Every structure is written in C-alpha cells, then in structure tokens.
Amino acid sequence: MKRNRRDAWPRIVIALAVTACVVSPAVLQSQSAAPAPPPILLGTAWYPEQWPESRWDQDLALMQQAEIHMVRVGEFAWSRMEPSEGQYDLDWLDRAITAAAKHGIYTVLGTPTAAPPAWLTEKYPETLRIDENGHRAEHGNRQQFNFANAKYRELARKIAEQMAKRFGHNSYVLGWQIDNEYAEESYNPDAKAQFQQWLQARYGTLDNLNARWTTAYWSQTYSAWDQIPIETRYGNPGLLLSWKRFVSDTWRSYQKNQTEVIRANCDPRQFLTTNMMGWFDGFDHYTVSQDLDLAAWDDYVGEGHLDPAKNGAAHDLTRGFKRKNFWVMETQPGFVNWAPVNNSLDKGEVRAMAWHDVGHGADTVSYWQWRSALNGQEEYHGTLLGADGTPVPLYSEIQRIGSEFAKAGPVLAGTSPKSEVAILHSYDSRWAINWQRHNHDYDPIAEIVSYYKPLRAISQSIDIVPPTAPLAQYKLVVAPGLNVVSDEAAKNLIDYVRQGGHLVLGQRSVMKNDDNGLQPARQPGPLAVLLGGRVEQYYALVDPVPVEGQWGSGTSQLWAELLSAQQNDVEVLERYGKSNGWLDGQPAAITRKVGKGRITYIGVWLDEPTMAAAAKWMTEVSGVKPALGAVPDGVEVYPRYGEHGAVYILVNFSKSTQTVSLPGPMKDVLEGGSKQSIVLPVYGLAVLSVERQP
Ligand code: GAL
Predict the structure, then answer these.
(1) Per-residue pLDDT tens digits for 557-575
(2) Same domain for 364 and 488
(3) Which end of the chain is more exposed for a tag (fewer CB within 10 A), N or C?
C-alpha cells in the first residue's frame, strides 16, 4: 500500500505541471486522486507558517519516519492567509499540503478563526468580545472575537470560502476543523440583543416566559423583551438555562456560517469537524455536533497520569456526539504547559494512552504539537522535536505507535465499539446541578464516573448518550444525576422500560422540567408512577451516612435521598443506617419489575466498594456480560466490532505485570501467532482479533 502511494506521485506531479494553467482546480485534483489514507491515523499539529519553507521537508521526512500520516494545519494562521483585508495568500498553504503529500502525509485544514489578525480587530472593534465584567478583549492572545458579531462572521466566512475554493477538491485534504475549541462567550450588546430575540422565538409571549420562569418570585416579571438580562451564575434558573441554550445555538450558527460555505465548495469526501474538549460544558455539544460529520476532541491529562475511567468516559462521551467513531485531534506528547505541575507521562504511558484512545473508538490520534514555535505563549509545551529541530526522547515511542497503527490498521478498519450498557448524559442536568449544587462537593462529572467506572470494568464497553437517544439496543441504561428532563426524554425513558429495558436512575434524577423549574411532582416526576415509589426528601450530607442491604454495608457520601415504596411490588435494595433520624431505616435504593423491563432508583452517592456491588447487581439482573471475559484488575479491555469479527485491545494500567487468559485462541495482531493467554507488562498492550465464524 505504501509502495502504491509513492508510485502514484510522479504521475501526479506530471499532471499538475501539464494541466495547471488550463484546467480548473477541481478537475485537476480529481485527476490526481490520492490513495486512501490508512484506517487508523497517527497525526500531529504542524505550523508551517512558523518556519522557513526550506525546513519543511526535513520535518515531513521525520514525520514520515514515525509513520505519521496526518498533519493538522492552518488553524491559527489567519494573518498569514489574509495579511490585509481581502488580500488572500494561500499559495504557501498549497505548497505545504503538497510537500506533506510527497511524504504520504494527508492534511486536515483548520479554519483560522480562533485567532483574528490585528488589522481586523483594529478596523472593526465590535468584533472583539466583551467579557462578563465588561472588559473588551485586546489583540495578542487568541479567542478574542465576539461569536455573535455579524462583521466577524462575514470575515470568517470569506476566509473559509477562500480556503474551501482552493482546497475543497484537493485529494490530500481529508477534512476540515472549524475554528479551535469554542469556549469564550461574548456579552457584547449585539449578543444580548440576539439573546432577547432568541427568547422571544422560544417563548412566543412574555406571559408564557414569565409563567415558565415563575418570575412572580422576587418581582422578576418582564414587561418588555429588552428588560431581560444575561445571568450566568446566580440568576433565575430558567434564565440561566436559556442563556446556555442560546450560547449553544450561537456556537452552532457561528460554525454553520463556515460549514455552509465549505460544503458548497468541497468534495463530499472531505469531512467537517471541530475540536471539542471532553467534559467541558461551555455549550451543549449535542447541539453543536448536529452539523458536523465527525466528532473530535483534544485529550489532555494535564497534571498527573492518565485516569483510564475518567478519560475513557470522556472518549465515550465524544463518541456519543455523533454515535460513531471519532478523532483525538490533539493529545499531549508527554506533558503540557498549562497545568499546576506539568509532569511528563511515564515512559510507555503515551503509547498505552494512544491505544486506550483507539480502544474507545478513536480512528486518529494526533499530537499537539510537532515542534514549539521559537517564541509565543506555549514555549514549554511537550513536542516531538526539540527547539533544535531534532527528535526528543518520546519520538521513538511515537514511532512505535506509528508502526503499530500501520500493522493493526487493516484489522481495525471499519470496526467500532458496541455496548450493551448506556449512560445518559445531559448538559442541562450538569448545568442545573452545578448552579445549585446544594453540597459544594457535589460534582456531576464525578457522579457520572462513579457509575461508569465499575460498570465499565464489568461490561468492558459503555456508550454515553443523551436521554433522547434511541435506547432499544441496550440491556441496561443508567442515568446518574439526570436532573432536568424534558417531556420527550421522559417519554423515551418510559418507553424503554415498557419495552423491556432496565433503567437505573441515579441520585438527583428527574427533579426539574425543561425550563429548569421544579417538576410539580416529587422525583422522579413523570417516572414516579412507573417506579411505584418516589423521593420523599433530599439531604445534603456533611458526614457519610451508613447504608446496607443487597449490595452489602457501605456509606452514602455527600447526598442522601429518602425514598418511599408506594406499591407492593417495589423491592427495597438498600436502607439507611442510623444518621440524622429522618433517614434511619428508610429506603435508599428501590427497584420494580415492569413487565419484562425494570426501573431502579438509587438515592445515594455510594462509596466505591458498594457502588461496585451495585454495578454487579445491575449488570446481572439485566443480563449484561463482559465483552471478552474476566481480566485482572487494572487491565482494560476495549472491544471493536466489524463485519469480519471482533478486535480486542487490552492495556495494562495496573502497577504490575499481568497475565490474561483468553476465552479462546485469538490472533495476536502486533506480535503475530495465535494466543490463548497473554502477558502484559505495566503499560503493556495487545491487539487481538477473532474472525467471525462462518
Ligand atoms: C489546546 C489548543 C492548542 C494548544 C494546546 C496546548 O487546548 O487547542 O492550540 O494550545 O491546548 O495544550
């Protein structure tokens, strides 16, 4: 395959030379089609605009030697692409793409709109964002733009259009990253006016808005749309949630402004994505992902070491945005520059992490960045080359990943994770809990991970999806802290149980309606009838409270909901021990069979061992089986399935060598041969395949 790619080159170059003057770029590129890129890509962020062109070939040759087949280019290079208004210069970018292609390296183009040039914001100061404190940003950093501003969007669209016209049919351009890590909201007057219009479109009349936000409280009643303020922390919960939804819609339209013009000018083969940030909750990622072809995220550990559960859940969250494989668009080559302590990952940990990514469904792992700019804010960040332009110690580990991706790529092509268990996740709920934590240590992400970790250890694969997603494929659906529930989501959950699924609601579930107001019924609101029980009262805890029952004796931390069973067929799974008097002896977790289905409510934040026992019960009662079979603690299993069978990636994140016995003979994709058991040193890994029996 590699050979074919190189063989194709002389023909491409001749075609370019002969036809460049007479044929449109589109036709020209279709004549020089690149071979298909490898199925599992290793990549890096590369900034050719920061280096003399005479250096490019050396960089690209070093990438090629590490089997890096993708560079992401351009996302901060606006001042180089448009040095003054309307004067576009993309020739250098064309040359960079061509130079990369000569080394078998494909390009993903970033639109440069996260870093507007100085001339732009100087000429149009309204494009600079105003922060919550009323300060207008200045040039010299990035993300200083006003995401709602019409002029900014016009200029962003133009540069995106220029790029798409030039590279939309270039067969070495795989796709597009729009902007970079959407994050900063604007509080400019135009954003505020748009928010008020957005409210009008959503609520129709002020009477309706006033009723749904209960603005009679504290005399908040509005008699004109332009009276409505922006609140981000202590405001009316309906207002807070509306602002976040407006922000999400504004990022969506900000993105659409560029995706529309790129799509109009590019091959359908090229994908559109943006690089998100895992658990970051600045906007609803389900809203913004709707117009993308592919989800991608920037996967950084920061201080410390990889936490396979928390990081794995972030992968599964990202996979859930489009409910298909995703990309790791950026990840750390050893260390970052922005954590309190920028320690390096251990030798072997970067490789283990890369396979952990692929195991969770990443089809690309791309390092940020190739080489540090010689000046600029991120001089200390980890890289693959040093300031002298030669490889750093980590480079050889990256080379190893590259050769392993090349080896395993054909087996992994077309495969993806498939799970029997889903965890439900909603931004509305996370925001709602974070605005009113009630116990300041109550972290909704930690709540999700407290369920995810033991459930994943048993099932070896989990999907994380929104509460309105199709659920029929799952044997078990767990909703930790699903605080805000729309009527549509409630119906989806009720249907799931009625059709035979097992729904587990975690503490703080189904308390709020779609306006972040209290449900007029006790928790779990519209699901209480199905549950045959309800939450009588919730208590924030200073000290842990004892619980005991079916899952053994343990404690509840931070939170305790006093449950009641209102129907005879409701089973009490756990009860509180002696605590504040109110909780003593009362139900802490209940379950009820509903036809072939089941609904369970857990009102406590269980300690780890009790949660592990609860997870065991949940999976057993729902018929969930481990994808591969039992493995030693600390060994992670990541199954990916395709037409021709299954691939199991195993990574040892424990502190000692582990031996895994396999349920049957499997092909060792990296080492060769058939294996019945496998020995994994610390950070060791294996890729095993089983062909589907005919
Ligand atoms: C990301 C960003 C990159 C780089 C990196 C450093 O958030 O997209 O441009 O700054 O962090 O870790």
Answers:
(1) 999 999 999 999 999 999 9
(2) no
(3) C
Q: Ligand 1 center to residue 330 CA distance, Å?
A: 8
Query: Tell me, what amino acid is at 416?
Result: S
* Cβ of residue 601 lying under 6 Å from some atom of ligand 1: no
DSSP for 152-212, written as a single string:
HHHHHHHHHHHHHHHHTT-TTEEEEE-SS--------HHHHHHHHHHHHHHHSSHHHHHHH
Please check whether residues 245 and 392 belong to one and the same domain.
Answer: yes
Q: Is pLDDT above 70 for 95? A: yes
Pocket test for ligand 1, best of 368, 370, 372 (most atoms within 8 A of CB): 368
Closest by Cα among 571, 570, 488 to 529: 570
CB atoms within 10 A of CB 508: 25
- Sequence letter at residue 525: G
pLDDT in tens, 274-304: 999 999 999 999 999 999 999 999 999 999 9
For position 18, what pLDDT does the model report?
31
Q: Is 2 helix (H, G, I), strand (E, B) or coil?
A: helix
What are the tens digits of pLDDT across the range 519-558? 999 999 999 999 999 999 999 999 999 999 999 999 999 9
CATH no. for residue 44?
3.20.20.80
Q: Which pTM was predicted?
A: 0.95
Domain range for residue 546? 421-622
| Final residue before a domain boundary, out of 577, 592, 622 | 622
Q: Which residues contact 682 (CB under 8 A, 6 or more apart)?
A: 348, 652, 654, 655, 656, 657
